[in-house]
Amino acid sequence: MSEPMPPAVAPEEAVAFTVERVRIDEADDQCLISGADDEEEPAGYFILECDGAGATIEVLGDALSQRDGVRAIEIGAHHLAVAFDPRSPIGRQMRELRIASREPIGPAVAVRLAAAFGPRLRLVP
Questions:
Q1: What is the mean pLDDT of residues 9-28?
Q2: Count of domains observed in the chain
Q3: How many CA atoms lie within 13 Å of 105's alpha carbon, on the beta-carbon side?
Q4: What's 26's DSSP letter?
Q5: Would 60 be classed as within a structural domain?
Q6: From edge to edge, which strands make up the β-sheet containing 70-75?
Q7: Which of 14, 24, 61, 85 is deepest in the core (most CB within 10 A)?
Q8: 3-state secondary structure of 116
């Protein structure tokens, strides 16, 4: 007789955290957008890497990393919210990532995200 299957584990609805600031570093056609709490540890919580081929997202370490897989992204003066495709590696773990920034998020971040995500990006006040 076979063992009963364990119940499916639903992904977390949203993972949320606060960073001191959302930092942007650009060099050689590559852009890194990350959560930063100090200069020594500039990218501890999430990294969005935008290049000519699109975006790569890494959340809470490289164990949750994927090429795009984003349904929608929202940016405001002090927050980013990313909704993931539930079939993507990160989307199987969490439906949404919400990042609050104590410092205002600069316009350069919105420009780079618009280039990477096009109509999936929504700007909010």
A1: 79
A2: 1
A3: 25
A4: E
A5: yes
A6: 12-19, 94-101, 79-84, 70-75, 121-123
A7: 24
A8: helix
What pLDDT, on the 0 to 100 scale, is given for residue 40? 55
Other beta carbons within 10 Å of 84: 26
Report yes or no on 3 lying in a domain.
Answer: no
Task: Write out the residue range of the structural domain in which residue 90 sits.
Answer: 13-120
From the CA atom positions of the chain, what is the Rg in Å? 16
Distances (CA, A) of 41 to 19, 38, 44, 94, 116: 11, 6, 6, 24, 25
**34 CB neighbour count, 10 Å cutoff:** 21
In angstroms, the Cα distances linking 5 to 60, 70, 83, 86 are 29, 30, 29, 22
